[in-house]
Amino acid sequence: MLYLDTSILVPLFIHERSTSDVKELLGRLPANKLTTSDWTRVEFSSALARDVRMGILDSRQATEADEEFESLLARTFVTLLPSAYDYALAKLYLLRHEAKLRAADAFHLAIASNRHAEMIYSLDQGMVAAGRALGLPMYPYKPK
Fold it and tell me: 2-133 has which CATH code?
């Protein structure tokens, strides 16, 4: 199982500096192993809402991006439903203050860890560093 967090999926639908890198990376991953979570769905919608508030996207563009995202998830990904164990592990991760985690990142890491992800993919370098500090298998993404 390969777990992809929100930061690595957003550039597929909203053009960012990392868009071409992410498309290239996803093209190399085995589609039958791709997973994310319902938490990613919430964060994705939050990113779209933020871009609408900031005037980067209009409502129609955000709705279209959300529909395309949901379609990709339905076709390609296993979407994990967070459990009580995920909340509990995220809390434990947050108590490891040296990891400098934020709650949303701790939740992604807990969901992936509790399901024994082979690799966790994120563009968030803080989350990657925290995951490594916790001994989790983080993909070493290096922006070009």
Answer: 3.40.50.1010
